[in-house]
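Q: I'm writing up a methods section and want to include an example of the input and output format. Could you take the sequence below and give the corresponding predicted structure tokens, formatted cleanly so I can copy it straight into the document?
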Amino acid sequence: MAAVRSASLTVAVATWFILLCPALISSAEEAKELASQVCRNTTDFSFCQDAIYADPRAPGANRVVLAYIAFGKAYANGTDTRAYIASRLTSGGANESEGVLTGMKNCLTKYDEAVQTLAQILGDLDSETYYELDKRSLEVGRFPAACEEGFKVGASPWTERFRKG
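A: Here is the clean output for your methods example:
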């Protein structure tokens, strides 16, 4: 199975830690430490840090704002990935083998589910309902792997796109 590195889901998988972290953030230094703690639980620490700190709200952000940053990026990237997959199915589907087409359709379904789950997570943050946030964030993290696993014939046509973030 190919290792999948999707910007949206790498950051989101560990973000559940933000909301379970007991400390409230009172300084920029503490916010940076919280982001570092979260990123240490991802598959790519540097990538996670870069993704979070690309947002101007990150310095001095509390755990809820960090969650908004991470899940917001996840939602945007998941939506973009879903559109990319749909476009590949529409434009290049006729030239693909049956195994690749089946895998692509499976991925489209997985990313539909991912985007829907991420929308629920953002809604939970808006309503300050954190009850299922950890469960949903872990669930979202499984969608790219499930997408790749759907390709019985090897890696998906967009594995390299995922690796580049």
